[in-house]
Amino acid sequence: MPRTALLVSGALLAALLPLAAAHAADDPAPATVDRFEGEVPFASQPADGIFTWGSDTDDPPALHLTDRADAPEGAKVLTGTYDISGYGGFTHDFAADRPAHDWSAHQGIRFWWEGRDDGRKIAFEIKDGGANGEASELWTTSFTDDFTGWKRIEIPFTDFVYRTDYQPVGGIDHVLGLTGMWGYAVTLPAGTKGDFAMDDVELYGRADQSLRASVSTDAPVYPVSQGGTARVTVTLATTGDRPVDDPVTVTYTTGGGTATAGRDYSPVSGTLTFPAGTASGASRTIEVPTRRVRAAASAKTIPLKLTVTGARAPAETPQIVVDAHGLPYLNAELPVRRRVADLLSRMSPEEKAGQMTQAERGAVGSGGDIAAYDLGSLLSGGGSTPTPNTPEAWARMIDGFQLRARATRFQIPLIYGVDAVHGHNNLAGATIMPHNIGIGAGRDPQLAEKTGAVTAAEVRATGIPWDFAPCLCVSRDERWGRSYESFGEDPALVQSMETVIQGLQGRADGRDLSRDDKVLATAKHFAGDGGTEYGSSTTGTYTIDQGVTKVTRRQLEDIHLAPYATAVRRGVGTVMPSYSSLDIAGDGRGAVKMHARGDMIDGVLKDRMGFDGFVISDWNAIDQLPGDYAAHVRTAVDAGVDMMMVPYSYKDFSSTLVDEVKAGRISERRIDDAVSRILTRKFELGLFEHPWADTSGAAAIGSPAHRAVARRAAAESQVLLKNSGGLLPLRKSEKVYVAGSDADDLGNQTGGWTLTWQGASGTHTRGTTILQGMREAGGDVTYSKDASAPTDGYDVGVVVVGETPYAEGVGDVGNGHSLQLSAADRAAVDKVCAAMKCAVLIVSGRPQLIGDRLGGIDALVASWLPGTEGEGVADVLYGTRPFTGQLPVTWPRSESQLPINVGDASYDPQFPYGWGLTTLTGVPRGGTATLHALAVAAAAAERKGAGRAGRALVAKARLLVQQKAGERMTEAVAKPFADADHLLLTGRYGKAVEKLIEAYRAV
Predict the structure, then answer these.
(1) Which residues are catalytic?
(2) Closest Cα partner for 931 from 958, 964, 904?
(3) How many Cβ atoms from other residues are within 10 Å of residue 582's Cβ?
(4) What is the pLDDT of residue 6?
(5) Backbone dihedral angles phi then psi of residue 654, each to the nearest 5 degrees
(6) In angstroms, what CA-CA distances link 730 with 121, 749, 790, 959?
(7) What's the CA dihedral at 271, 277, 282, 286 to 10 degrees?
(8) Which GO terms describe its molecular function (predicted)?
(9) What is the pLDDT of residues 45-54, one digit of tens each?
(10) pTM here?
């Protein structure tokens, strides 16, 4: 209901002031925070001042101190205009070189706000404790602009809650102390233009005990085995940590719930008293004994009702839960299929629907809805992290959610999922691997498996058993913003890298899933997401992501489905369909969203390929299906999607699914199939026996051993495209001039999906930049980011340039991105390479068009997105390791050639698929005769099934061709060269060498 608008004039204010003073005669005088008369400047730390901020250069508001005749206080008010696309607002930080302010004597904070009656929500936060305003703990609340004219907004301190999405220092003590305050901040609404006016921020009222004292319990749920005693700790806390002035009483009684008093437990009641003078933090314990019952039973709940006098009561009633016992599904000695069948037979339609529902952690708050809706799964979207973002905090958070699931009838554990797509990339301090495009460049299946194993160990050590990885897309157009999530453009290359599934899950039969260093893997995005046609996307401003893949049936099978057949053979536990649509020539259906394609999900994946795991939708993907919401649910479920990722609409999904089943529009048999698949994986993961986080491996997160794997992966991912005069490797005696935007930027070299969905430039996690790696390697290095420093006196220049982070369709070419280097990067390359011999490293998720500058560059390296271990790049630059990487995608001459891929009828790239020069490796002597001998030997190795020998023989032939071709790349050379690499990956070693002979002759 809208608040009544309060229009204020100066005369009215004068009349109201005596009344206000009389009403609050026993309150402390209001304490001014801001009058906006000019005494507080527009300035930032360490000075006392007001400053703006925003997610990009356009988002900070414009602020002014404006003379207003209707100013509620004084002559001036703070006014501002804004047009915020991401986030933006302003802050008043108190001077950091003076003591913090003490607000603990007051009831709250208030200010005048000029309403626009636009219904927008304005967030207001205060800064508590810490070293200064930018290193404090943030507490937040909001108010709605649903009034017109000036209105005084009063916010008691009890309305503020700890901010969970961002804390500048990771949080301090999670207690609003009010004795060390550093100011406030206002977050303005995003999405449309607006203006505001604000005046007279002040503290008001007296902090009476009922507002500053609170009673809490140490947990919301207390599981206990039958016959055990639950112990509930009740704690008294006060803002400012001061003793209470008056007594606080807590009356408690058991009753209600599903447990029966006298049979399942002994009822208790009584009163706890915290006398006047009791210190903040004092606690008392209530014991609730349960009774042993011989009959098997599901879990029973016992609410403990608390009535508090003299303080605020807990936000919710704590529950004691007598654990389920004696039921067959709880017997770990039984086969999984029998446990699943027993549990399924006991579940209600609502409980089954809950198992098929996945919500975002940020949507469920403290987790009460987990039991209320019998939720089966939660996830963290990109950047959705606990505060502080530490392994311990992740484990505590997930254990807290699992605790909520113990209050459900059958105590089915949650399965928590996260996008750990190149290491545990949401966790600060985790080991960040190269993105998949770099792993594909490494051509090392054993190393790919090791990167998966490190990722799994770090993810599971934080309590997470499920990873939405790997991406098995076959990237066919580098304009796609997700192209770096692909191992490459050749399905054979993608298949060879699927050893990562074993790294994540262990053995294909699933027997390792319950280990504390393995996670359930997800093959995504089924199928064809890498083949979408440029310009076909209908999602916002995307140009190619979530578009339409147009293929023949043969192309679909050979290119886009082949990696999933391999994944199924490797035992992958879950599969995620793509947002994209599939248009199969000749089937008469046109473009159909993958989440609606039962012919592909049920027909191909489950029936033909024999996939026995479960299918999880992509984020809100069912919302893109045609029809009303009920149609969305029916279509996706009937197509074979078993669990829906409905981050913030989980209530609507669950209730709609139940309604559709009860109405007979979705069959119970289909629901039982979906839930059986989900429960099977939960049993295999050992979650029923061990739902809690096993943090025994947490000490290894970001460890030297794990980083050594990432360092090797970074080194192997480097592709040497050109090396005139043998410029690389560098000698440590050489004086090296380093420049470029990506030389010393950890965020740029880790790319998207790092701490946040889109990633960010700058230092946001632990790692080593390429520049730091070069220095640690012992190089004589001088650094000038923009190449503005003098260039005289150097032996060689290294210019590290490339892209800034992006993810998904945000990174599509044409959506604010291109395949061209920035103007600053081009200038740095031109200046350094004109002054000295130079090597250019391109840090990017896809090829960059650099052909117009290639003649002036002595050495060119595709560095991809190497992750946190920049030493790996330095290892190959300085010759500690050889360059061995090969192009996982074709490097085009121009954007007009796109899409261009190995196997195309017309194929004339700058560098062909599979190209990659080497260092520290001798090239075989000889010419055509040597190649023919290698072909004969390779064919023999193929017949014998000697894969290692066959690959080595093809590699020798490739080195011969590359040495002769040099920079004389033509279509006649490029096409058979690229074809040879595909043949190599499919085990046809003799044919691969024959193609290389064809390329050799064409030079």
Answers:
(1) 618, 808
(2) 958
(3) 29
(4) 30
(5) -60, -45
(6) 57, 21, 21, 21
(7) -10
(8) beta-glucosidase activity; cellulase activity
(9) 899 999 999 8
(10) 0.87
